[in-house]
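User: quick one, sequence for these tokens?
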């Protein structure tokens, strides 16, 4: 028989308090500092081609037929 889980919140089902207007001031600067400290965008030019995995953007029609919305992403 199924276990009664009503009323129990797990991290994936717990209610999330999302503000009407998020505070974005300073977010880019904070993330930039973090990424620099962690070496997120560092590249070793001695790395062999087989060891590099890189994707710039997917093809414009990866999810189906070309439509008018694509011009907003790729222009």
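Assistant:
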């Amino acid at each position: 028989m199924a276990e009664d889980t009503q009323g129990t919140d797990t991290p994936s089902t717990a209610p999330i308090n999302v503000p009407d207007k998020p505070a974005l001031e300073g977010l880019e600067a904070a993330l930039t500092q973090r990424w620099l400290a962690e070496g997120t965008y560092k590249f070793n030019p001695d790395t062999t081609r087989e060891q590099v995995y890189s994707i710039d953007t997917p093809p414009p029609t990866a999810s189906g037929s070309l439509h008018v919305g694509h011009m907003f992403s790729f222009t």
